[in-house]
Amino acid sequence: MPTDGAVSSSSGLIVSFGEMLIDFVPTVSGVSLAEAPGFLKAPGGAPANVAVAVARLGGKAAFVGKLGDDEFGRMLAGILEENGVSADGINFDQGARTALAFVTLRADGEREFMFYRNPSADMLLRPDELNLELITSAKVFHYGSISLIVEPCRSAHLEAMKAAKEAGALLSYDPNLRLPLWPSPEEAREQIMSIWDKAEVIKVSDVELEFLTGSDKIDDESALSLWHPNLKLLLVTLGEHGCRYYTKSFKGAVDAFRVKTVDTTGAGDAFVGALLCKIVDDQSAIEDEPRLREILKFANACGALSTTKKGAIPALPTESEALALLKRSTIIDKIMSWIFFWFVF
Q1: What's the pLDDT score for residue 247?
Q2: pTM
Q3: What is this enzyme's catalytic activity, as reactions (predicted)?
């Protein structure tokens, strides 16, 4: 496993399960949906974003889900294939449309969502439609919580997760909380936690940590209240403040990278994709703190770069872009150290 931030070409398959949709992003930031003069069409959906993030970094990725048998659905499947993601796990529904989301960008690049899925095709995936051969060939099986909201997709999610685990896959979970999609906050919390103890790697944002714990504190005590015996790695992403990590043996924090933020959509997915690329072929890195810190530094770089363009999938970085940011950061750190040395001594 390299320690210079590079992602080695992985041979292990990372399968992402869940939703893929079209994000409509305002052409200008800081306005409401009604005030937006126009929108950019961008492919999105957290599990699909992770799959593309993996492939763009040189990993082997597949997506499992359901799209509408419409122009948007066919376009999204084509985008996955163009980005090197296997579409063998995709089903098309002739009776439901591909999901749409309108994303409001605040002046600081943060987002608010309005979804159109009543129901959308992703909600209608059935257990009997799963490509179990693909799922059971995964070394890592990654998923979110949106696929838990309604049947039959919930049963398909549980069946896929069970099959992957029995085949020896590492289970990776990013709840990706979207409260407007849930009947109530209480239902969201209950369903998100219903599969909590199955995952071995869990990533939550600071907002999700507050929601799941019911505490307004973003600290170690709050994070560790989410720990369970089967967990190998718990990550809390903190936006411009980097991330915190927790394992059975150690804990710590890794700083973020300073970039000009345009749109934070997909930043967490870029982070997760980079992490999974690093550990898919050597999970022992989770138990080696120096190596894990290098991995998380790379993941932070990928997350930061994904915020410098509008849209999720279009903004996901390549390995060379991430390495360039790491190199620039190292040079700046050295210059600052020299300045500090001469100023003090």
Answers
A1: 98
A2: 0.91
A3: D-fructose + ATP = D-fructose 6-phosphate + ADP + H(+)
